[in-house]
User: Which sequence fits this backbone?
């Protein structure tokens, strides 16, 4: 990291901190809901995920693009919105930020058992298909804003946050509505429960990649903007 220029260091730290906030608040809501007997509620958890993403987009979007998600980073790279040399640093910083958040929650709530691990409630196929479709919708929305340089971009944080909350509201009880490999990887590692992690890696990444040709077909290709959400 010492060999990176200051602007790149800022982007990497922004992705690390933003992903930390996402996982700390989102999975923290799950943990606190468990230890307080359901006071946060499922809608509360869903809104927490949506609100923290919205806040981070407005706080960090002009620095790193506020990906906070390896699937989003990979799809934006394939779409031409992220330079190749930033892909690995972004993936690593997101993973580190998520892991630090889960370790923090383990320290704060040592009596908990899963720290927000995503697990299928239905069949494995249901969860895999849901994670793919949910991430496709999310990524399609992100690309719509990435390709729009007009005043509507000021709504990106609210709309993307709302999509995440919406998807978590209706699909969370079945698949966990992760849509983010880093969000699922960190609590799985901290909780030593990797049984179904592959679903939450393969599903979101495949969904994000599928969103790219769909977006190109509907919206066409656009000139890359490295600060797009």
Assistant:
């Amino acid at each position: 990291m010492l060999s990176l220029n200051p602007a790149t260091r800022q982007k990497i730290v922004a992705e690390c901190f933003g992903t930390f906030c996402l996982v700390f608040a989102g999975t923290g809501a799950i943990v606190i809901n468990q230890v307080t007997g359901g006071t946060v509620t499922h809608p509360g958890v869903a809104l927490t995920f949506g609100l923290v993403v919205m806040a981070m987009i407005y706080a960090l979007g002009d620095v790193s693009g506020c990906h906070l998600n390896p699937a989003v980073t990979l799809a934006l790279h394939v779409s031409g919105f992220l330079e190749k040399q930033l892909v690995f640093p972004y993936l690593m910083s997101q993973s580190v930020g998520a892991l630090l958040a889960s370790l923090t929650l383990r320290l704060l709530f040592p009596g908990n058992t899963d720290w927000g691990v995503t697990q299928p409630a239905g069949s494995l196929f249901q969860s895999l298909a849901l994670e793919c479709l949910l991430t496709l919708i999310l990524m399609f929305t992100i690309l719509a804003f990435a390709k729009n340089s007009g005043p509507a971009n000021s709504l990106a944080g609210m709309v993307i946050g709302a999509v995440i909350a919406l998807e978590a509201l209706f699909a969370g009880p079945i698949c966990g509505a992760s849509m983010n490999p880093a969000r699922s990887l960190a609590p799985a590692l901290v909780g030593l429960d990797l049984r179904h992690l592959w679903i939450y890696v393969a599903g979101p990444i495949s969904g994000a990649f599928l969103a790219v040709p769909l977006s190109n077909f509907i919206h066409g290709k656009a000139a890359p903007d490295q600060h797009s959400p």
